[in-house]
Structures are given as structure tokens and as C-alpha cells.
Amino acid sequence: MSLRPDDHRRKWDKDEFERIAAERLKAEIEEEERSKKKAPPIKRELLKQRDYKVDLDSKLGKSVVITKNTPTSQSGGYYCNVCDCVVKDSINFLDHINGKKHQRNLGMSMKIERSSLDQVKARFASNKRKLEEKKHEYELDTRLKEAAEEEARLKELRRERRRDKKRKLQETEDPEDGPAQSELAQIMGFSGFGASKK
């Protein structure tokens, strides 16, 4: 400390604080060594594709009464049973499922398995097969639609031909009755009945 009575500034004992710093550093190094010896690094599974469908629509449009005693799994929002948490909307729920915390609780790391050349070729082949099957189904569907349209066109043509034949028959029969009916209509003062002849 200071020897002069008018010097009120605090003086530090450098040797004392160097000793305290050395002890703290030693304790931190020992703690790191203990933590390394205790837990070997956890080998987590690589990230893989989800094998189930995420249910986002089951509670859509439904109203639920929530009380103080309602369990968290039945409260409003989407419940994650792995992390035991409730997320309020579907977008945040999807973010949570795909997030680091959820994947860690499932026992997966966020690393993806590196694909080999054979796996890539197999995937291309399977995708090509699926595309050909869809194309084949599409061709079959288009053929069926085209056949149905063609049938509809033929039916319409037949109806038109029948109508034309009926019109021609009526036109050939009407001239005999036509003049007499028109004279009668003129005498009575009718110019027509509001419908034109076809």
C-alpha cells in the first residue's frame, strides 16, 4: 500500500494477483482434461430422409378448449414429442423438425452421407423408370380421353343428321298445309305465333 498519507490511490499487490491468475489457469486446464477423459465424443448417426409423413392438416380448422390442466401435447399448436415442446404454427414446426436441436435429440448429426457413384447411377435409373411409367400412364389416359371426345363428336354428328332429316321431312310436308294456315292466320289477324320456322 501507499506510504504517504495524502496518496489515496489504491495500489495493487502484483505478486498476489499473478498467483491467483496462475491458480485459475491451472484449474481451467485440469477441468478441460477431466472433461476430455470423461466423455468420449458421441458418434451420431448421419442425417437421413424422414420415413413418415408430417401431419400438418389434422388440427386444421378445429377449435379446442384449453384449460390450465390441459397437457402440453393437447394444447394449441403443434406438439413435438421428441423435444417435448409446442410450436404455434406449421412453418415454425417444420423449421423445428428440420432444425439442429430436434435432429440432435433424435441422435443424428447434421452431416449427410456422401453418395457413391453406384448410388447416383441407381437413383438416376429409378427416376428414369418412374418417368417412363408416368409417361406410359399419361399416354393411356390421353388415348382414353381422345377416344371419349371422338365418341362425343360422332354422337353430336348423328344428332345433327337426324335433326336435318326431320327438318327436311317437315319442310316437304309443310308446303301443303302452309298456304291454308297462312290464309287463316291472315283472316284472324295473326302474323305468327312468335316462333320462326326451322
From TrEMBL:
<dbReference type="GO" id="GO:0003677">
    <property type="term" value="F:DNA binding"/>
</dbReference>
<dbReference type="InterPro" id="IPR036236">
    <property type="entry name" value="Znf_C2H2_sf"/>
</dbReference>
<feature type="domain" description="U1-type">
    <location>
        <begin position="75"/>
        <end position="109"/>
    </location>
</feature>
<dbReference type="GO" id="GO:0000398">
    <property type="term" value="P:mRNA splicing, via spliceosome"/>
</dbReference>
<feature type="region of interest" description="Disordered">
    <location>
        <begin position="156"/>
        <end position="198"/>
    </location>
</feature>
<dbReference type="GO" id="GO:0046540">
    <property type="term" value="C:U4/U6 x U5 tri-snRNP complex"/>
</dbReference>
<dbReference type="Pfam" id="PF12171">
    <property type="entry name" value="zf-C2H2_jaz"/>
</dbReference>
<keyword id="KW-0863">Zinc-finger</keyword>
<dbReference type="InterPro" id="IPR040107">
    <property type="entry name" value="Snu23"/>
</dbReference>
<keyword id="KW-0539">Nucleus</keyword>
<protein>
    <submittedName>
        <fullName>Zinc finger matrin-type protein 2</fullName>
    </submittedName>
</protein>
<keyword id="KW-0862">Zinc</keyword>
<keyword id="KW-0238">DNA-binding</keyword>
<dbReference type="GO" id="GO:0008270">
    <property type="term" value="F:zinc ion binding"/>
</dbReference>
<keyword id="KW-0479">Metal-binding</keyword>
<dbReference type="InterPro" id="IPR022755">
    <property type="entry name" value="Znf_C2H2_jaz"/>
</dbReference>
<dbReference type="GO" id="GO:0005681">
    <property type="term" value="C:spliceosomal complex"/>
</dbReference>
<dbReference type="InterPro" id="IPR003604">
    <property type="entry name" value="Matrin/U1-like-C_Znf_C2H2"/>
</dbReference>
